[in-house]
DNA sequence: AGCATAAATAATAA
DNA sequence: TTATTATTTATGCT
């Protein structure tokens, strides 16, 4: 049994809860509605969870991580936390939408990110580099930061690019190795 | 120079285009509006580009890849292609929204994906498994590929999962001992 | 024309 | 919350 229930279990109880009065129920339903709406409105503004978190951290008191926004949207938090967070998000989002109406540039300024952060150009690795990377990967698919730095230096690629290469390589491996698909866990 | 212009360059020309009549301009603006709207509506339905592409491939004639949907949303295609694709997407999306109103289950059925394809859960090790892993780790923190395979077999876990456990365990050790605190990651 | 995969974003075990 | 995994989006390439 759990001592602390999450909103999920409040909203979708396995059985009808007795002893929950009408007022509380409405309140929770309200939060659920808002959470769903919040995500849509956030996406409509073209904002990421990270951006919202960073912007809130800047304007509001405490720190809000990307994870916190994610958990709110999925209602994977206690009702009490959600109750507390809801008005903060509501107010902030409304203001963001206001800025957006005046032009997207204003929104971006409000959010605090660089005005025109462009996506990084897709890197093309040379066949030689791929070969070297694969050799390292076979030895250790999860190199340490230090190791990544060294590999990047050796191949004369951006460190971040090498790091991401390992991330994606691990991913590909998992997706391909369906051999252990029937393992129970 | 490019031989084939994309919508991007049509919509945001570096200089005002002369010789473009009013009717054409309105039409292009319409597509731009729709593309923006399409994305928001798609996200509101909680659908991915991949899902849309697959669903379209199933119901409409030709094949639509995730890339195609992506390129339409970003208008990284020729006006002619966009013109052609727009009504198809419009019709499909309207129908999808209709199904969604009848319940999300219906939408998922319409889209054709598995009704409740859940995200793969992150591995949790049992206390017993942790204990065995720690015993191995104390003996050798950097097992060979062969050794990892054997441990995985013994514990009946995915080999990759075991390999990563060792990586993480080594990492944790490093982090705890603060010596390498400045190692980038 | 779209595959393969790099990059970005969301979700989550610890 | 942090640090990582899982998922989605975007794009280089032929």
UniProtKB/TrEMBL annotation, chains A, B:
Residues 23-97 form the POU-specific domain. Its main location: nucleus. Keywords: DNA-binding, Homeobox, Nucleus, Transcription, Transcription regulation. GO terms for molecular function: DNA-binding transcription factor activity, RNA polymerase II-specific; RNA polymerase II cis-regulatory region sequence-specific DNA binding. GO terms for cellular component: nucleus. Residues 116-176 form the Homeobox domain. Residues 118-177 bind DNA. Belongs to the POU transcription factor family. Class-6 subfamily. This is POU domain protein. The chain holds residues 425 to 609 of 609 of the full protein.
